[in-house]
Amino acid sequence: MKHSVTIEDPRCRGCTSCIKACPMEAIRVREKKARILDVRCVDCGICIRICPHRAAIAESDGFGLMHKFHYSVALPEPALYGQFHNMDDIDLILNGLQKIGFHKVFEVARGAEYLSAEARRRIQNEENKRFPQISSSCPAVMRLIQVRFPKLIDHLNPMILPMEMAAIMARREAVAETGLDPSDIGVFAIVPCSAKVTAVRESDGLEQTVLDGALAVRDVYIKLLSTMKQVENIQPVTQASIMGASWAYSGGESASLLGESTVAVDGIENCVRMLEDIEDGRIPDARFIELSACVQGCVGGCLNVENPFVARMRIRQLMRGLPVSREQFVLPEAERFLSLRNKQQAHLPGVLRMDDDRTVAFEKMRAAAMIEKQLPGLHCGSCGAPNCQAHAEDVVLGIAGLEDCVFLRDKNEKSES
């Protein structure tokens, strides 16, 4: 995958903070520099938050990409609305986006509301017999399930991301309004997290991406701060509803389903524990599970600027002036887009494998278990792996040596002397 999370070598000091914090054991320190194992990374952004030297970063697109298209459309995630102090009108933000160069603004909240209505219908009709259904709105959680919990793929709600739904609808509207060819229209998501940057570059549910770029909320925020002061006549633009805007924080998607048997979980470590319970069959009475990798949901994304708890409060205040639902969607072929995810996920394998050949994989697992018994079991991270088990697996896979364990090396040196 074209991951957005990366390590800047000049800043990295090999301190091992990231390898201990990564919930996927996706980082190793080799030759005093951190390295990300692409096959394990889910772009959750934990390493970005934890790195004391700011070496872990999320790469997003720049504003210059807009100029490659004749017509540009901004897709602001509702998390953007909670970043500003003393904000009482969403339209001021949307007018500001038009003033910084976008020809059209189409809110991701509209796509979220459409998906809420579709999810309600599917659950009520019991189209997916595998309950509880798991939300597919967080790309990091979806990747987590594919990597660590492949048995739960059938539980995923088979729908595309809200920003993808919004992109499909926005491009359709732009074509109708301008008469331009769809390829001349650039559609850009304004995203709060690294996982969504990756999802823009490589869709996990569609055969090809429907977005042309991803701008970080923090970058847009900086431009909007000065631009919004220049907006004199605020034009009504927003078509968001409470059901759509509430997807910005944990629990909002669940609430939009209008059901009681829903659970909302935020923070990737909590998500891992919940998925373990689902896999063990310990959540039998829940119909829908909303999982967000970031604390407090999208408002807690690593590309935001505001405290997630404060951002959630602000969005809830802005929602007071919105209707509960707009119910304005007419998209006859939407079912085709919604069902594509189902077809692809049914064939997704778990990727944490020691070898493609099952027999060889079991042999490597046994070899790793034997090597682990030789290690001290301190899980100190001094070898560059997060724990002794991971180090043993790395030795078997040939990406580390047994002597990388400093305690084992000292023991051998003492015995030789």
List the SSEs and their pairings:
Blueprint: E1 5-7, H1 17-21, E2 27-30, E3 33-36, H2 46-50, E4 56-58, E5 71-76, H3 90-99, E6 104-105, H4 108-125, E7 133-134, H5 139-148, H6 162-178, E8 185-191, H7 194-201, E9 213-216, H8 217-227, H9 242-245, H10 252-256, E10 262-266, H11 268-279, E11 288-292, H12 308-318, H13 334-345, H14 358-374, H15 388-397, H16 406-416
Parallel strand pairs: 5-6, 5-8, 7-11, 8-9, 10-11
Antiparallel strand pairs: 1-4, 2-3
Keyphrases for this structure?
417 residues; single chain; Alpha-Beta Plaits; 3-methyladenine DNA Glycosylase II, Chain A, domain 3; alpha/beta; 3 domains
Please tell me about this protein's structure.
The protein is α/β, with parallel strands linked by helices. It folds into 3 domains: 1-58, Alpha-Beta Plaits (2-Layer Sandwich), CATH 3.30.70; 63-345, no CATH class; 354-417, 3-methyladenine DNA Glycosylase II, Chain A, domain 3 (Orthogonal Bundle). Helices cover 40% and strands 11% of the residues. The protein has helices spanning 17-21, 46-50, 90-99, 108-125, 139-148, 162-178, 194-201, 217-227, 242-245, 252-256, 268-279, 308-318, 334-345, 358-374, 388-397, 406-416; strands at 5-7, 27-30, 33-36, 56-58, 71-76, 104-105, 133-134, 185-191, 213-216, 262-266, 288-292. The strands form 4 sheets. It has a 4-stranded parallel beta sheet, sandwiched between helices. A 3-stranded parallel beta sheet has the order 7-11-10. α4 crosses α6 (162-178) and α14 crosses α15. The chain is globular, with a radius of gyration of 23 Å. Mean pLDDT is 89; it is low at 342-351.
